[in-house]
Amino acid sequence: MISLPQLWLPIVLSAVFVYVASSLIHMVVKWHNPDYLSLPNEDEVRAAIRRMNPAPGQYVLPRITDMGQLKSPDVQKKFVEGPVGFLMLRKSGSPNMLPSLVQWFFYSLLVSLFAAYLSSRTLSLGTHYLKVFRVTGTVAFLGYAAGAIPQAIWMGKPWRSALKEIADGLIYGLLTAGAFGWLWPR
Question: Which residues touch 46 (CB under 8 Å, ≥6 apart)?
């Protein structure tokens, strides 16, 4: 059996590879840009939300507290009239990407740590590259991509956007798999 400390280099390096690939996808290729739409009356919507001064958080429209409320004609009318959706608000202020980028890197380390853990318990020293690639790539792919599906099912994320995030997850999974296969202890 292999110990996790023996896998520190592929854990860190795969997280770095994913971080770089993610940066390239979002800042150079920008294939997610069309996924974020703007409202035709954005300034009015912003002004209305600003007047209400809601705390940062996740909101749902229309809001019900139990499924029995769906029988109410008033609630049904709200759903028919619309809008129906989810709204996430962050703290106001100038955007600061640093905390999110740091969290993303730590998440990438966490995914790699889980890939390392599972592979260290199922594979031995000197395991062939392709077998290491399959095990670690599968775990990493699930860690990066699986969350997009529930978002599309339950939150209304457009499937086109979810499929792009799944494709990102595949890229990240392949990079993780390559790092582990390359640096697997002999």
Answer: none
Task: Identify whether the C-beta of residue 7 lies closer than 8 Å to the C-beta of residue 180.
Answer: yes
Q: How far apart are CA 132 and CA 32, in angstroms?
A: 31
pTM: 0.92
* Cα–Cα distance, 88 to 58 (Å, whole number): 4
Q: How is the chain split into domains, by residue range? A: 4-37+95-183
Provide the residue type at 109 as one letter.
Answer: L
Model confidence band, residue 58 (pLDDT cutoffs 50, 70, 90): very high
Token code pair at residue 121:
């318990």
Tens digits of per-residue pLDDT, 68-78? 999 999 999 99
- The contacts of residue 125 (CB under 8 Å, 6+ apart) are 2, 185, 186
For the chain, give the number of residues.
186
- Give the count of alpha carbons within 13 A of 111, CB side only: 32
CB atoms < 10 A from the CB of 118, how many? 14
Contact yes or no for 185/6 (Cβ under 8 A) = yes
Give the H or E element holding residue 85.
strand 85-89
Q: Amino acid letter at 67?
A: M
